Amino acid sequence: MKLHILPVSPNSQGCAAIVKALKLDIEIENAYGKTRTPEFIAMNPCHTCPTLELDGADGAIWESNSIMRYLCVTSEGGEKFYPADPVLRAKIDMVMDWRQTSMYKSIAPIGYVIFGMDMGEEATKKGFKELMDQHFPILLDAYLKDTPFCYSQTVTIADLAVALTFTFIKCRKNMWAEVPEKVKEYHARVLEAFPDMKDMFDMLDGMCTGYSGDGADIMP
Ligand SMILES: N[C@@H](CCC(=O)N[C@@H](CS)C(=O)NCC(=O)O)C(=O)O
Asked: Which residue owns the Cα nearest ligand 1 atom 4?
């Protein structure tokens, strides 16, 4: 199997973190500049990373959450990151669905500017207001109410899905300054749980903290 990733993308980083933490025999390939090639599109018509290329005639899986779930349910030790208890598993799935359908839409206009995709000041401010008014309160007051990770004493794939994206906010320094301390502590806690990923995490952090282009100083 081969995991195609973009190393500075949180979507890809979560899957790479599971491959490394479970010490899986899966090759990790940097697909930067290759996602629109005919070969890649034949494998994944959505041309997105991460993509997990399966063995033989099994094709491929994309969507970061689906890949993380697949890696956990098919690998020894995977229950550590995707617990089998049905209630806890459903809550982890719920948090991951919330991330994809709700929270991430607010993150993209804030962070994608570092990839040259400027979605404009209005969308950036709207995204940050949604994080502050809706998403962070749900994260802190529900998902992290009684536990250091989402509904869990130990880190799970839900935390990878959610927390890694917060690094993007650092490219807007005045917004990062407003992020609640408890959110920053949670972000740091999740990153620290995957020491083998430090180089990749630092790469994205460096791109965000070093960003000085249009909108870097935008006020919340
Ligand atoms: N919902 C998808 C999003 C994946 C995605 O949008 N990946 C982007 C990078 S963040 C990508 O691979 N873009 C390259 C392309 O579209 O050619 C997931 O969670 O995996």
From this structure: 48
